[in-house]
Write a structure and sequence with these properties.
- It is a single chain.
- The chain has 429 residues and is α/β, with parallel strands linked by helices.
- Helix content is 29%, strand content 25%.
- It has 12 helices and 16 strands.
- It has helices at residues 3-31, 87-92, 111-115, 147-154, 171-184, 229-235, 241-253, 275-287, 328-331, 338-341, 392-395, 403-419, and strands spanning 73-83, 94-95, 100-101, 119-124, 159-161, 188-190, 202-206, 209-217, 258-264, 291-295, 300-308, 311-319, 321-323, 346-356, 363-379, 385-391.
- The radius of gyration is 31 Å and the shape is globular.
Length: 429
């Protein structure tokens, strides 16, 4: 074969091999997203931090690595007082045609407030024991249909304190069933237990802030004798300082950022906290509790922001009633004067922002405010009695409220504002 022809063929083979190699490199680069052609723009790599807008540039030799910037975290907590269901509330929510209950109307005006919170807690005062042994009834032995829990859940509550002076109204079986029904709806409970728990503390991680919930009651209306002592000790958190301090210590061991104690205490209808409440509050705050949420008096008691070792803490001795049938018309006939009974229509939602510093990890109570509430009682178009809890500032000028109700609402607003200013350092934001 001609020597020139052989050299030409050899050059063609080498050129072909070179082009093939270049084509393979190009295809591999394209598949890896290094040469344009993807939705993330030229030079972007799919699935990396860069796609999320993060700086992934490696430091040059000898340069220190840039520290990761952590953002501050803010958790909004909303808390409220006694959630109670009296006979007129049960009757008003009943539909005889379907033989079912619907309590959602009572929460319609406050629903968005709780749904917009990161975590919401209330005091469920009563039981849901079913109606096979106990009828659905109010005072003195509260037992509500399960539909109340559907409405509470839909209204945005996440945690219910279940320990109070009415938690044993339907005895041990009622305690157990109430917890089961609440948990079946995706809410947490604290203060009562179906059996001896591994811990009495409810721990919740909310957006990266660890919150420990404790709950205790001063009394159970003398119904202690209905349970065996060992069951009472295991299932019902009756105020016991040794136990409370154990729970605080446990919360600290679990690295809780904030410790919240729901306390069912004080004297009914007393608008000023009892001395024993102040003494116990000081012990709890000194031991490590950050926030105390009080209930039981059925009227609002003052709130305070206090400093302990340079740290701001908060106590409200009573948040009043959230929803109930207690009011002038129902209490005066039982000998409770109008000047006292009118305050049972009042309540507050405590509105707390808890902040965690992204750099230091320090957790603080950033700010505390309150939302005044008033419970309306009236008659619907179909003749049913209705009870609706209203945030006053949103509805005091509303056409939904008649003039007579607005007058009572204004009275409630003025009295609540004065009550929340009683103590120095009280929250009035």
């Amino acid at each position: 074969m001609n020597r020139k022809i052989r050299r030409r063929r050899k050059r063609i083979r080498l050129l072909s091999i070179g082009l093939l190699i270049i084509a393979c490199i190009f295809a591999a680069s394209l598949a890896a997203g290094k040469i344009g052609g993807n939705d993330n723009g030229p030079g972007d790599i799919i699935g990396t931090d860069k796609e999320q807008g993060k700086n992934t540039e490696s430091p040059k030799p000898g340069e220190p690595k840039k520290p990761e910037i952590k953002e501050d975290i803010t958790v909004n907590l909303k808390a409220t007082g006694d959630i109670m269901f009296h006979p007129s509330q049960l009757d008003g929510a009943y539909d005889p045609a379907t033989k079912t209950y619907d309590f959602r109307n009572s929460f319609k005006a406050v629903k968005e407030l709780f749904l917009n919170a990161d975590i919401a807690i209330g005091n469920f005062e009563g039981t849901t024991a079913g109606n096979s042994v106990y009828a659905y009834q109010g005072y003195p032995l509260f037992n509500a249909p399960d539909e109340v829990l559907d409405a509470i859940k839909e209204a945005g509550f996440d945690v219910l304190s279940t320990v109070n002076n009415h938690c044993l109204d339907t005895r041990k079986a009622g305690v157990i069933r109430t917890i089961e029904q609440i948990k079946a709806r995706g809410m947490d409970t604290v203060g009562t237990y179906v059996s001896k728990p591994e811990t009495r503390v409810l721990m919740k991680d909310v957006k990266g802030i660890k919150i420990a919930f404790l709950a205790y009651t001063e009394m159970v209306n003398g119904l202690e004798s209905t349970m065996k002592p060992e069951d009472l000790n295991s299932m019902i958190n009756i105020v016991n300082e040794e136990k409370i301090f154990e729970d605080i210590a446990y919360a600290k061991e679990k690295n809780a950022d904030i410790i919240i104690a729901s306390m069912h205490w004080g004297d009914e209808y007393a608008r000023v906290q009892a001395g024993r409440q102040e003494v116990l509050a000081d012990k709890l705050l000194s031991a490590g509790v950050d926030i105390i949420l009080g209930s039981h008096p059925h009227v609002i008691q003052p709130a305070q922001r206090l400093e302990y070792d340079g740290k701001t803490k908060y106590v409200i001795y009573s948040m009043g009633n959230f929803i109930s049938n207690q009011r002038i018309e129902t209490l005066v006939p039982y000998g409770i004067g109008e000047e006292i009974s009118k305050y049972t229509e009042d309540g507050v939602i405590v509105d707390i922002n808890i902040e965690k510093n992204g750099e230091t990890g320090e957790v603080t109570i950033k700010d505390v405010g309150y939302i005044p509430l008033w419970v309306y009682k009236g008659t619907t178009a179909n003749g049913n009695t209705e009870h609706v809890v209203y945030p006053i500032m949103e509805y005091i000028e509303s056409s939904d409220i008649n003039d007579k109700a607005k007058a009572r609402m204004r009275r409630s607003l003025n009295d609540t504002a004065m009550q929340m200013k009683v103590l120095q350092g009280s929250s009035t934001e």
